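Before the break, one more example. Copy the sequence into your notebook; we will annotate it together after we see the structure.
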Amino acid sequence: MALLLAVSGCIGGDKQTSASGASGSTSGAVTSSTATTDAATSTSTSGTGTTSAASGTTSTSGAEACDPVETFGEATSGGLPECDVWKQDCPPCEKCTPYASDGIVWDEYGCVPVVPDPKQFGEPCTVHGSPASGFDDCDKGLFCWNVNEDNVGWCIAHCVGSLSRPECDDSAICGVYGNGVPAFCLPLCDPLLPECPGDDTCLPIDDWFVCVDDASEPDAGADGDPCWSANACDPGLLCMNGESIPGCQTTGCCASFCDLEEPTTCPLKDQGAECVPYYAMGEAPPGKENVGFCGLP
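Here is what the structure looks like once it is written out:
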């Protein structure tokens, strides 16, 4: 069985391909890249700082060391100083990061200060101003992702390489928004043992499972609830074709992941739900042969 709405894929930044059996996209229209992940996984930034593609760990010693800034900084009416996120070519003590020139949707890259004792990959972070202002407390090579109503998210890493050949290390794949802003490393995950940062959820993209933002509404997203996109269900669930879910009266409904190698404990088993294969026979990627979902056999 396939997702009702899964993330479409992008090979090398231009060729479009769909996820296995997919028919739509997650909230935010992220594409993925399969650019070589076994190539060099770090890139030098200005001075001596070095950023790891997936972990985002950045050193700021030597030429990068500088006096700490006291604030996040403020955007001016003319926007932020332009920069190349792939080169991280901002002045010392600053980072190149995505921001929204209209205050709403990321569409540009600009230089902002790096705050004292910045947060590292996977750590909670805070955004100053609007959620897409670009001013956050993540280190160089990172930005604050999946920000909630309190302006709190978690630090995620930029892809490295180039837009035509984006790279992340073996623990992540590169997700790119349609306009190329932002391009970030989506951590790989196991749908049966999800350990995604923040409130993210583990969902399939092409032949991988990756951590993406949870777009489920309060008091919605449980087993059998209607859904409109792959990430509209609670973590541990995914949006499936309605005819596959017992009692579903809409195009799609939420269903729990389950392990085909273990006895099923599907929440809707009293309505006929069983642990059935997520992938068609012979189509499961290596290591994902036991991934199932709770649906009608």
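The chain has a mean pLDDT of 76. Residues 237-295 form one domain. Try to locate both features in your own notes.
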